[in-house]
Amino acid sequence: xxxxNIARAILLVAFAAFVIHEFTDDTPDPNNKFLKNxxxxxxxxxxxxxxxxxxxxxxxxxxxxxxxxxxxxxxxxGIYPYKIKDGKAELYVRVHDIDKGDVVKVISDSLAYYYVxxxxxxxxxxxxITYNGDIEFAKENSxxxxxxxxxxxxx
Length: 155
Prior knowledge:
Blueprint: H1 2-23, E1 40-50, E2 56-66, E3 82-85, E4 88-94, E5 103-107, E6 112-117, E7 120-125, H2 132-140
Antiparallel strand pairs: 1-2, 1-5, 2-4, 3-4, 5-6, 6-7
Protein name: DUF5666 domain-containing protein
Signal peptide: 1-19
Keywords: Signal
């Protein structure tokens, strides 16, 4: 009986190790090489729209400073996590704990965005968006349009 319990415990530990290994992939996304483009900008949050996928959403910023006038590049697979156009920027990231008026800074080369919320400095991960559900949400809720200089969607 004791040997059987030890064998079960060993199998349980082995199974848990396998599950943890399979579902915690620390391999860098090869698409993120496209974010090494020296884009840096910051601004104040005008609005956010949150999806049902782990607080992923669209954040609209009034750009205060940027080293590029506009950025609307496209990728063959996935989408960039930001657009900049006509003094506005959109971020397609996790938008939890971010409110209207908060200050956000994006440093693309560092694969991060930084924000101050209620006097607390926080960091979020920046990456190429490849999950189809997030891509569709970003497209459906985008205010900046790639096809024209006209803002679309909510005010």
